[in-house]
């Protein structure tokens, strides 16, 4: 693990020792306050000395144990941040299926504020670079252990729930290409291309040329190497630059899994980029994690996993990215359950690789990633997060499909 | 024609006489001002005495002739309202294909305001009743002359552009049912049911029970009669009431072609109605005319054709109807070109029935309807208006489709 990433996951203490001191009446009162915060969660809440509260409704699906007094009171101060912090450090433990326990918590939390809680991270060029580096430059070896063989780190499309992850990622890429009606020879620009799998897929299967932008240097090195090995480097150019650096004329704009890292204050800039980039008969596709109601991302996920990220509601994207240029929304599909299934595959592979991962990373890092993967799966299962694919075209273009495709 | 409708279309004068006075330099200057308002329109603009301006760009697709001075100056004062008024009264004439001429105007108009032009018609119960009566109670005989045999007065779905109107309306109703995954025995509530075709289709083909609401008494009389004749009145109940009067528990909420008459200030009330009406695994579909950018409906259309109407942008619907109740957008499809094709069919049948229509209605009424049908077709062709179908479900329901349907 690289030093800067070790720092990001460093914790004040890593403790799985059981304190010998008994809980007091005040500690037990605090645990009651925490239960009151998620009153309908079917969870047993336990303290370090064995004292526990049973669920108010139905049998427990699992137990959350607080292993010392300092952790207990940190939850009273800031439960959203400190549950994750203490799970990561080992000063809280979950017994039972982690996804089911987290799903209980998500379902029991008060509904997202009716008064929008805007998340105002301003991701300028430097911050964006730092944020992307934090997550995506963890080392290709790390991701290779639990992603599919194509290294696609976005929601897959499962023609049936039983499809393999490999088949589902391929089906997702093909669905994106068919929604965009790619024709051989067309010019595509991709914003945020990961390890290059979609760019290479479009060139290989649909014969288009692609300029693919990314600011993760580790991902780009991998993508360029792959393009050369596959003999596709005459069709696909990988550019190390921010989406704001996109220049040139294209038939198609595509971005899969980047918008959630852009942040609301930069949506207008993204709209300008698309407007400048695509031709009079141009069209585009945005694939992103979103919400049903505006709400900032969990504080712990922002701190440890995705700095600067914000999953928008559709209208925020429409109002700020598409409307100013009179782009026309042609097609929206919500693939929420497909992301829950994708995350189930990733998590299963992650757990299967735990021995290898333990030799590469420290315990806090792996516990953080376990919590992030399980928590994400729980949030798609409970409907706390959505996955939207939006197809759009210029408002005055009649070069649009007569009927739409389906998976 | 009923007296109250005659009044709605009465005009100060109906003149197709050519005034003998010549146009002045000032008249010609005014015509130049009008041309400057739509500088790129490939139209010849002519005055009553033969003076004309040729298009600044390319050959003319048609000619608009102003037949007297008063009309000319009324266009300077309020072109949006008075072009329609003068076409209706016969004091302006169009030579060339009416749809093509109007499409030239739409394309040449300045893009809808980037600063939203909110349309604030408050349609309370009494106003809604009056607005609906104005348009939908013109007599079933009138609509029978140019709608399909099922009397479906909303955008059809053409599996191919060559499909007949009858086939396309049937395909649209089936598409709506399949998007909603109707199962036999389910309870459906329909808001704004027209002449009852969709309600009867759902009961006949999918075996669901339907309560269908409408405030047009002429449409309801027709629909109830049809239900009895088809022996479907045990499955379909037609209720003469506003959508705000919907009570009871349903699996499905559906509304095809009503939202554009609701008006923004009532969207929150509509959201409440849906929230109250549908079950925990409930879902719904909204089919409506919309826009890419917020803009009020043409002033003449509002005055003569659709009082109180407002075609929204998607985000206005999402923010005001769906978000407050955390409904989840599952699927959006834009059928803009299908509405252009639908209107082409209606207009063709309308013109074919002109002899019968002339015996029933006065000239101003028929010219108003010709302008409305051609103008609507032009606005869908040019992308000035959109047709959205939005499928949604409760945000925490996992009883949602794994994959979507297509036409």
Q: Could you outline the blueprint of secondary structure elements for this entry?
A:
The structure is a homodimer of 407-residue chains.
Chain A: H1 3-8, H2 25-37, E1 43-46, E2 52-53, E3 62-66, H3 69-77, H4 79-89, E4 92-95, H5 98-108, H6 125-136, H7 140-144, H8 165-179, E5 187-191, H9 197-206, E6 209-214, H10 217-230, E7 236-240, E8 250-256, H11 259-262, H12 267-277, E9 278-290, H13 299-305, H14 314-322, E10 327-334, H15 336-352, H16 354-360, H17 363-381, E11 386-394
Parallel strand pairs in A: 1-3, 5-6, 5-8, 6-7, 8-9
Antiparallel strand pairs in A: 1-2, 3-4, 9-11, 10-11
Helix pairs in contact in A: 2-3, 3-4, 4-13, 4-17, 5-17, 8-9, 12-14, 15-17
Task: Summarize this structure briefly.
The structure is a homodimer of 407-residue chains. The first copy, chain A, has 407 residues and is an alpha/beta fold. Helix content of chain A is 44%, strand content 17%.
């Amino acid at each position: 693990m690289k030093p800067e990433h070790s720092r990001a996951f460093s914790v004040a203490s890593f403790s799985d020792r059981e304190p010998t001191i008994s809980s007091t009446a005040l500690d037990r009162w605090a645990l009651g306050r925490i239960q009151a915060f998620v009153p309908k969660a079917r969870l047993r809440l336990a303290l370090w000395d064995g004292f526990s509260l049973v669920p108010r409704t139905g049998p427990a699906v699992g137990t959350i144990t607080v292993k010392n007094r300092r952790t207990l009171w940190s939850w009273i101060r800031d439960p959203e941040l400190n549950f994750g912090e203490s799970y990561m450090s080992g000063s809280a433990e979950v017994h039972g299926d982690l996804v089911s326990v987290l799903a209980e918590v998500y379902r029991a939390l008060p509904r997202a504020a009716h008064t929008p809680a805007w998340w105002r991270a301003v991701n300028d060029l430097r911050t964006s670079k730092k944020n992307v580096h934090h997550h995506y430059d963890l080392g290709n070896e790390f991701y290779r252990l639990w992603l599919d063989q194509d290294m696609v780190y976005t929601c897959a499309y499962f023609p049936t729930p039983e499809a393999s992850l490999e088949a589902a990622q391929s089906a997702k890429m093909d669905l994106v290409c068919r929604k965009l009606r790619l024709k051989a020879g067309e010019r595509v620009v991709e914003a945020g291309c990961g390890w290059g799998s979609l760019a290479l897929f479009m060139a290989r299967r649909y014969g288009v040329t692609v300029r693919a932008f990314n600011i993760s240097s580790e991902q780009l090195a991998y993508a360029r190497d792959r393009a050369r090995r596959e003999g596709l480097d005459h069709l696909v150019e990988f550019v190390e630059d921010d989406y704001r650096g996109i220049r040139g004329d294209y038939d198609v704009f595509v971005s899969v899994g980047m918008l959630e890292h852009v942040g609301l204050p930069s949506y207008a800039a993204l709209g300008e980029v698309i407007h400048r980039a695509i031709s009079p008969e141009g069209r585009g596709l945005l694939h992103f994690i979103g919400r049903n109601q505006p709400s900032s991302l969990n504080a712990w996920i922002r701190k440890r996993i995705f700095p600067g990220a914000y999953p928008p509601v559709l209208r925020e994207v429409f109002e700020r990215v598409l409307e100013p240029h009179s782009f026309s929304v042609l097609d929206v599909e919500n693939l929420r359950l497909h992301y829950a299934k994708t995350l189930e595959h990733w998590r299963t592979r992650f757990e299967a690789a735990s021995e290898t991962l333990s030799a590469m990373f420290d315990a806090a890092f792996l516990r953080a990633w376990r919590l992030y993967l399980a928590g994400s799966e729980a949030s798609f299962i409970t409907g706390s997060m959505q996955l939207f694919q939006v197809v759009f075209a210029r408002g005055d273009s009649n070069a649009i499909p007569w009927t739409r495709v389906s998976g």
